[in-house]
Amino acid sequence: MSIGMRRTIIVALAIPALVGCGGAAHRVAEPAPPGPGDLPAVRLDAVDRALDPLGEWARVRSVGYGIPARALQAYGQATVVMAKAQPSCHLGWTTLAGIARVESDHGRFGGASIAADGVVRPPIRGVALNGAGGNALILDPGRTGYARAMGPFQFIPDTWQRWGMRGNPDDIDDAALTAGRYLCAAGGDLATAHGWRQAVFAYNHSTVYVEQVRSAAIGYDA
Predict the structure, then answer these.
(1) Interior/surface letters 136-165, b for 16+ CB within 10 angstroms, e for the rest
(2) Is it the case that residue 189 has pLDDT exceeding 60?
(3) Distance CA 171, CA 8 (A)
(4) Which carries the bigger pLDDT value, residue 93 or residue 6?
(5) Residues 54-103: pLDDT tens digits?
(6) How far apart are CA 170 and CA 174, in angstroms?
(7) Per residue in 112-130, is it b (16+ CB within 10 Å) or e — as a string?
(8) In the prediction, which pLDDT does 99 show?
């Protein structure tokens, strides 16, 4: 993990306001959000990461969920950190897993895999966002050319610059925590139907996408 746990908690508390993401949601009867999934008790101040119960929990559960253990550990870790930083958000690891399943098959898209250090190799990059084929037109800030979504959670560069806490978008730990921060800022209370939908819709402005993530997340809570 490239972001220290203690520094991560401090930085996660500093959530910038989310501007221009998602827009107004339709006030209609919305299905209940996916359950948060179970997690072992974790001490965030633990010094010996070898004793981290999340690692064992992830190894035991990974086969049944069809999620790489290293990815599952990252989702659990991000959930624990956000529960400390923003307890009113009620982020569940199942939502992070649902997003990562849709975005990159948990870091496995195109034959990629997650190394022990949490970095996805080879790096996963989306198509050039050049406005063609129904894609958005987004320039890569600071570079000449079009932006491409990056990493297992497929952040576009300008979003990562704002939310990524100087981390690495190809690192599953950094990416999962960044996604958690973004979702909590966008949705408020993800234990509510409206909050959960608003958060995921802000992540990707597509009702089809929201339902894909919901379906995947519900499966992980089963």
Answers:
(1) eebeeeeeeebbbbbbbbbbbbebbeebbb
(2) yes
(3) 14
(4) 93
(5) 999 999 999 999 999 999 999 999 999 999 999 999 999 999 999 999 99
(6) 8
(7) bebeeebbbeeebebeebe
(8) 99
Structure tokens at 94: 């199942």
Hey, what are 58's tokens?
């992830």
- Write the DSSP string, the chain: --S-HHHHHHHHH-PPPP-SSS-PPP-S--PPPPP--------TT-S-GGG-HHHHHHHHHHHHHT--HHHHHHHHHHHHHHHHH-TTT---HHHHHHHHHHHHTTTTGGG-EE-TTSBEESPPB----BSGGG--B-B-TTSSSB---BTTTTB-HHHHHHHSTT--TTBHHHHHHHHHHHHHHHHS-TTSHHHHHHHHHHHSS-HHHHHHHHHHHHHHH-
CA atoms of 155 and 147, how far apart (whole Å): 10
Closest CA relative to residue 176, chosen from 68, 42, 35 = 68
Q: CB neighbours (10 Å) of residue 135?
A: 13
Q: What are 214's two structure tokens?
A: 């919901």
* pLDDT score recorded for residue 28: 58
Backbone angles phi, psi at 113, to 5 degrees: -150, 165
- The per-residue pLDDT of the chain, averaged, comes to 86
Least Cα distance to 202 among 167, 173, 163, 161 occurs for: 163
Residues 6+ apart with CB under 8 A from 187: 89, 195, 196, 197, 198, 199, 200, 202
Tracing tokens 């950094």 back to the chain, one arrives at: 174
- Digit-coded pLDDT (tens) for 122-132: 999 998 877 77
